[in-house]
C-alpha cells in the first residue's frame, strides 16, 4: 500500500464553486480506483482558494494479476461446413493473440453456444491508471463558467499553475492544461515560498502550514471561530449568527486572520436588517450584538494573512465600511420620506412578464386574491389591513435600498411601513411575504404575511402556466416549483384550512378580464401542486406508498396531509392493520367490475350471519369514524377502524361470505355494502395503496 497525494494548483476559485469541485474530483478518483479493482482506504478531499486536494494514506500500488474469460463468436458461425475456422473465428483469434484455437471451449448461452477462452491479464500499475484518468476527470469537472487563458485550448474554472501528483512518493506523470505534474507545491502568495518539493502527505501538510496555507477547510473554520471568540470576549458581545457567511469565508482565505473593526454608533440608527446585510454583502463581515440582542458598533472581518501588526487591514476595512454605511444611512433616510402610493405607481413601468403584465397589475391581482383567501378563512375583520399589505407588497422595488440590496425585497417595504406607523398585520404582511424562499427557509409568522405569500406565489404560478412558461426537466426559470412548494408549506405548516380548488378559483377570478386562461390550466396546476405535495411529504420521511395513499384519498386540504399521514403511519407501525389493508384491496377488486350497477343497500337481503354481524358493527363504528374525521382526530378514526380488523378478516375467510353469489340481487347488495365500507375506511387514506410487507 502507498500514499496518494494529488493537488491541483490554480488561481483563486470562487468560494461558491470550491466545495463542489473538490467533491466531484474525489468522487471521480474513487470511481476510477474502484472500477480498476484498486483497494484504498480513507480517501480524503479538501481545498483552499488556490488548490484542490485529494489524498489517501493506503492505496494499492497495482492491480492483481488475473484471468479473464474472453467471449468469442457463436459456434454456428465460427466453423464452416467442413469444420474449418471461419473469418469470424480467425478475426477473434487475431484480436486475442494469447489464445489458440485449441484453447477455446464451448459455453452455453441463452441464444446458443459460443466459443470462449481464458487469458492471463497482468495487473496495471495504479500510477499508470491514474495518469490516464486524472486529466479526463479534471476536464469533466462541472463549473457554472469556465475560461481559457494564454495560447492553450484548455477550459477550466481558473488558470492551472501547478500539479502535484504522487503515489508512494513517486510522480504520477500526466499533463493537464499545459502543466506537467511533478513533486512540487507552493505556499501563500505573500507569506510563503513560491515553490517547494514534498515526498509524502506528512511533509506536504507540514510544509504547507509552515508556508501559511491551511489546506483543511474544517481547520480554517475552527481557526476563524477561535479568533472570533477571542474578540467577542474582549468587546463583551455575541456573534450575530450567519451560517451562510461562515460557510463562505473559509473558502476565501488560505490562512484566516480575524479583524475586529469599529464603526460610528450613529449608524446603529439604521434598521438591523439593513446594517447586517450591508456588512455581509459589501464586507463579508459579521455583526456583533450585546446580551439583549442590540447591535454593537463592531464588526468582524476575515483576511487571508498571518498578522496585521500595523492595523492596516483593520483601518482599511473600517474606511471602506464607513462609506458603505453612509450610503445605507442616506438610502434609509431618503426612502423614509417617499410616499408609498407614488412609489407604487412606478410599478407600471416595471414589467413582471411581458405576456402577463407589469408589477402594478400583479399587485392588483395579489390584492384580489388575498382578499378572497381572507374571506374563505373567515378573516373579514382583517380584510382592510390584508388588502393594504397585498397592494403594497412590491412597492419597495422602487426604493433606493432595494436597488442597492435586492435581497432585501419585502423586508425594506415592511420596515418602511412600520416606520410609518402601520399595524403589524400590514408591515409584517409585506416584510415576510417572500417567505419561504426554499425548503429550509423560515415561515411567515403572521396570518397576513402567510396570505400575501400564498397570493403572490399562486399569481405567478397561474400566470406562467397560462402563457406556457411551465417547468420542463431541470429548467424552471421562473422558480415555479419553489413557488408551489412555498404555497404548500405555508398552508401545511401554518395550518390554514383552505381547499386547493377554492384557492385556484380565487386566483382565476383575479385574472378575469386581464389574461385568457386556457381551459386545461387549472387541471395542470392541480396536478403540478399534487406532485409538489408528493415531493414534500417524501422529503419529510414518509414512504412513497403512504404518500400515495394519503393523496389518493384527498389532496384538497393541504393543511391536513401530515396529520392524516401520521395517523396511518401509526397504525402501520403497530402492524394490527395488515389484514385490513389486504382485505380492503379485496373489496376494491371484487366490486370494481359492477360498481356502476350498484344500488342502495337493502339490509333485508343479508343472508349470512357473518355479513349481518359485520354490517351491525360497521354501522356502530361509522359515526365514530366520520365524527372523528370531521374533528380532524385522525388517530381516533384509525383506532375505530381497527375494531373492524377481525370481523372483516372473518368475512373474507374460506368459511366467510361468498360475495359473487349467483343471485344478482344478493351479489349486488353485498358489493354495495363493501363499497360503503371501502369509502368510509378510505376517508383518511386510500389504504389499498399501501404495500403490505
Compact description:
The chain has 693 residues and is α+β, with helices and mostly antiparallel strands. It is 48% helix and 14% strand. The longest helix is centred in the middle third of the chain and has 25 residues.
Strand residues, percent: 5-15%
At CATH's second level, what is the architecture of the largest domain? Orthogonal Bundle
Number of helices: 26
Helix content: 40-55%
Number of strands: 19
Level-1 CATH class name of the largest domain: Mainly Alpha
For the termini, the CA-CA separation is: 45 Å
Number of domains: 5
Average pLDDT figure: 92
What CATH calls the topology of the largest domain is Hypothetical protein af1432
Could you describe the largest sheet, including whether it forms a barrel?
Answer: 6 strands, antiparallel
Low-pLDDT regions: none
How big is the Rg?
35 Å
Q: How would you sum up the global shape? A: flat
Judged by helices, strands and strand pairing, the structural class is alpha+beta
Description:
The two termini are 45 Å apart. The mean pLDDT is 92. A hairpin with a 2-residue loop joins strand 8 and strand 9. Strands 1, 2, 3, 4, 8 and 9 form a six-stranded antiparallel sheet that branches. The chain has a four-stranded antiparallel sheet with strand order 14-16-17-15, with helices on both faces. It has a three-stranded antiparallel sheet with strand order 5-7-6. It is flat, with a radius of gyration of 35 Å. Helix 16 packs across helix 18. It is 48% helix and 14% strand. With 693 residues, the chain is α+β, with helices and mostly antiparallel strands.
